[in-house]
Specification:
Order of helices and strands: EHHEHEEHHEHEE
Number of helices: 6
Radius of gyration: 15 Å
Strand content: 15-25%
């Protein structure tokens, strides 16, 4: 897990103003990493969301999956109905902290070419999702 937590200088924080905590979505489904891809796609459809926070058995956030990622796995030649979310989360991608500025999180998202970041606390528990408007 790559947790990015930058402590901005006072002048930078005043200039930027808002943190990830100010703009993150706290609502949304969190699912266990032993869930199958098919069930995860069903949960997404039922929740009317394009992403899911994935947690391990201890409740720690292990990543975020998108509808596009799951559809690509499902449409792949090696897919079976036994593929679990933990099987496709090899590269979990970046995570962010609620105290990260929105500007820093946006830069990280553009650099990593992701549309959303899991927001986790200092223990790795999911707090929500921060998504950029594109």
């Amino acid at each position: 897990m790559t947790l990015v937590q930058m402590q901005p200088s006072t002048t930078h924080a005043a200039a930027v103003g808002r943190t990830v905590a100010d703009a993150m979505d706290t609502a949304g489904p969190q699912v266990c990493d032993d869930m199958t891809v098919e069930v995860a796609l069903s949960v997404m459809a039922s929740a009317h969301t394009g992403h899911l926070l994935v947690c391990d058995d201890s409740g720690l956030c292990t990543g975020l999956v998108t509808h596009a990622q799951l559809a690509a796995v499902r449409d792949g030649s090696s897919y079976s109905d036994r593929v679990r979310l933990r099987d496709i989360l090899a590269d979990c991608g970046p995570f962010t902290s609620p105290v990260t500025t929105m500007a820093e999180a946006g830069h990280m998202m553009r650099h990593n070419d992701v549309d959303a970041l899991p927001v986790v606390d200092e223990h790795g528990s999911a707090l929500g999702v921060f998504a950029l408007a594109r």
